[in-house]
Amino acid sequence: MPATRLTLICHARTAAQKQARLPLDEALEMDWQAQALSRATAFKPGLRVLCGPELRTRQTATLFCAEPQVQEALRDCGLGLWQGLSIKQLQAREPQALQAWLADPHLAPPQGESVAQLCQRVAQWLQDMATRPGHWLAVTHPFVMRAALLQVLQAPLASFNLLDIEPLARLDLSHAGRWRLRLLESPAPG
Q1: CA nearest 146: which of 31, 14, 10, 32?
Q2: In this predicted model, what pLDDT tens digit does every residue of 50-107 receive, in sequence order?
Q3: Structural domains of the chain ordered from first start
Q4: Which of 62, 66, 113, 133 is the most exposed place for a label (fewest CB within 10 A)?
Q5: Residue among 111, 100, 118 at smallest CA distance from 163
Q6: In whole angstroms, what is the distance from residue 112 CA to residue 84 CA?
Q7: At the top level of its lineage, which domain of life is listed (predicted)?
Q8: Phi and psi based region of residue 154 (left: phi greater than 0; alpha: psi -120 to 50; beta: remaining)
Q9: pTM, to two decimals
């Protein structure tokens, strides 16, 4: 079977990220285009582009192609009633619930999705992508990228909160029998 190459890119920065708020379906910051456009030029025209359904992923994906294919499996982790709240607000209102959620990947925010459920969803999506040869680019969220890394590295769920994914970060994977992390050469400084 021909190989699958999958490049995951985190959406560009939002105001929620700057303010340490759990995201809603907000637009990107005003200055995101120039920064993201420089990343987009590294990819070949005609690349098959997927994205999550949220506005921030769709906006970022349009830098790579005019009509990205929205995939529900790439949606952000469902944070339920905590969506839109800042970490400070949660620490003040529900400190025990927040700490329990951060410590136990099987706990979900009220009316939300647990990290374990997210990781299951992403594992299923990766399994499906393994049957789709060629190079794919998927614009998604930090939580989804963390879940993909755990799956590929077969790391325990407890490792989830040890990973930081910055806006526009890139994760390269390949599949030829099994998923592998691809570390790419970076351009020389200066």
Answers
A1: 10
A2: 999 999 999 989 888 888 999 999 999 999 999 989 889 999 999 999 999 999 999 9
A3: 4-182 (3.40.50.1240)
A4: 66
A5: 118
A6: 13
A7: Bacteria
A8: left
A9: 0.89
CB neighbour class for 79 (10 Å; exposed up to 12, middle 13-18, buried from 19): buried
Parallel, antiparallel, or unpaired: how do β-strands 134-140 and 48-51 relate? parallel
Share of the chain residues as helix, strand and coil, in percent rounded to the nearest 5:
40, 20, 45
Question: How far from the centroid of its chain's Cα atoms is residue 14's Cα?
Answer: 14
Judged by DSSP in three states, 14 sits in strand
Q: Which residues contact 154 (CB under 8 A, 6 or more apart)?
A: none
DSSP secondary structure, 150-174, as one string: HHHHT--GGGGGG----TT-EEEEE
